[in-house]
C-alpha cells in the first residue's frame, strides 16, 4: 500500500509538460467528463454508493461547475490533496461528505461515503458504521447527529486519531494515478 505515495511522488516530480502530455493522452479534448472519469476508474459493476462517491469527487474537483475537470482544476486538486494545508483538506473533505449541500454532515452521509470508499479501494478493515460512531462520539459535542464545518474542522484537529483515519481513508492517490497513468494492466491468469 505504501507504494502508491512513492509512485505519485515520482509522477509529481516530472515537469508540467509531462503532466500536460499525460493528461491530454487520457483526455484529448483537454477536459474530463464525469462519464470519462468513471470509465477511467472502470466503474462498471460498482455499487451505487461507489458511483455516488465518484460523482461527489468529480463535482468537488470541478471548481467552476462547468461539468468538466480541465487541466488547471486537475493540477489544483492534486496540489490540494498532496500539499494542501490541513484546513484546506478538511474543508474539501467536508464538501465531499455534505452530499445534500445543506452545510452539515449527518451520519448517513458520512456512512455512505465511507462505504463507497471501501467499495472502490476494496479495503474493508473497519465497518463504516464503527467509523461513523467513533467520529460522532468524539466530535459531535452537542449530540445533534450533525456536524457543521466548524465542528468538523476543530474536532478533527483535536483528535489526531480521527485526523489520521480521515487522511488514510480519503487518500485519493490511487484515483489520481489511474487518471495520469491509466488503469494498470490486469494479470492474465
Structure description:
There is one protein chain. By secondary structure, the protein is mainly alpha-helical. The protein is built from 11 helices and 4 strands, in the order ααβααβααβααβααα. The protein has helices spanning 3-13, 16-26, 34-40, 48-61, 71-83, 86-97, 107-121, 128-139, 149-158, 160-169, 173-181; strands at residues 31-32, 69-70, 104-106, 146-148. A two-stranded antiparallel ribbon has the order 1-2. It is globular. Residues 1-6 have low confidence and may be disordered.
Oligomer: single chain
* Contiguous uncertain segments of 5+ residues: 1-6
Gyration radius from CA atoms, angstroms: 17 Å
Instruction: Look at the helices and sheets and give the structural class.
Output: mainly alpha
The averaged pLDDT comes out at: 77
User: How many helical elements?
Assistant: 11
Name its key features:
5% strand, globular
Quick rundown:
The protein has 11 helices and 4 strands; from the N terminus they run ααβααβααβααβααα.
Show the helix and strand layout.
Elements: H1 3-13, H2 16-26, E1 31-32, H3 34-40, H4 48-61, E2 69-70, H5 71-83, H6 86-97, E3 104-106, H7 107-121, H8 128-139, E4 146-148, H9 149-158, H10 160-169, H11 173-181
Antiparallel strand pairs: 1-2, 3-4
Helix pairs in contact: 1-11, 4-6, 4-7, 6-9, 7-8, 9-10
